[in-house]
Write a structure and sequence with these properties.
Largest sheet: 9 strands, antiparallel
Distance between the termini: 40 Å
Radius of gyration: 17 Å
Number of strands: 9
Strand order of the largest sheet: 1-3-4-9-8-7-6-5-2
Oligomer: single chain
Structural class: alpha+beta
Number of helices: 8
Length: about 240
């Protein structure tokens, strides 16, 4: 993959410019169950408690972890959808689920890169350095009906923006297609597949999953810059197990 293509598509959705590239440079059917139980009158979970519930190396061995910094979140806050009806999709991708400016806890997880053979080409070396599928995970606590409302808004945006939408930002990207992928989990979930173009010949898929567990929403955005993107369902299940 050309280096310019990597730079153009790195933040897990929108301008794709932040956590996944930052971590790489260091070598992150139906919409699901509609059970509203536990959504109403949800109490806020303190940020310190959410941080303790994030996945660790003990939960997912063989991976690299990078917590989102204030700088990462500020950079992501500049990204948005050109069409307001698609904003919930970008909000979920940019770590502001439910319209919040930032998640209480967020990190990027990526497989440890494999060492390329000595005779590897520059492109093979780059793919090895990037590793496999990078997943951004965000946890946010929303009070009252906030968590259920956030999932509802994301589901509607997935329907309204099925034909694709444009993104604002320094390296504006065009999402060509938005599809439901049928995965479900937790009390309620929305799982979408976003298709965009790296260049004239290469298509890229990003998986976006948002799951409500009581008043907490866990969002997952998965992207690979070195091959086929793998669905983050295994990490979703591990994260939900920690949320309880």
């Amino acid at each position: 993959m050309p280096r310019t293509a990597v730079r153009r598509t790195t933040i897990v959705a929108a301008s794709l410019l932040s956590l996944a590239l930052t971590l790489s440079a260091c070598s992150d059917a139906d919409s699901g169950k509609q059970d509203k139980g536990g959504a109403q009158n949800a109490k806020e979970v303190p940020a310190a408690e959410l941080a303790k519930l994030m996945l660790t190396k003990e939960d997912v061995p063989g991976h690299r972890f990078k917590k989102a910094t204030e700088s990462d979140l500020e950079q992501a806050a500049d990204e948005g959808a050109k069409d307001a009806k698609c904003a919930p999709i970008v909000d979920a991708l940019m770590l502001r689920m439910g319209g919040k400016s930032a998640h209480e806890a967020a990190q990027t997880i990526s497989p440890e890169p494999k060492k390329p053979p000595k005779d590897a080409s520059p492109e093979e070396q780059m793919k090895a350095a990037l590793g496999g599928t990078t997943v951004q995970i965000g946890l946010v606590s929303l009070t009252g009906d906030g968590a259920a409302d956030a999932l509802g808004a994301l589901e509607k945006a997935g329907q309204d923006c099925a034909g694709g939408f444009g993104l604002k930002g320094k390296d504006a990207t065009q999402i060509k297609k938005v599809e439901k992928d049928g995965f479900s989990a937790g009390d309620e979930s929305v799982s979408l597949t976003l298709t965009s173009d790296l260049d004239e010949k290469t298509t890229m898929k990003t998986y976006l999953v948002a799951v409500r567990q009581g008043g907490v929403v866990a969002s997952f955005a998965a992207l690979s810059l070195a091959g086929e993107t793998q669905h983050p369902k295994a990490l979703v299940e591990k994260q939900l197990a920690k949320l309880g």
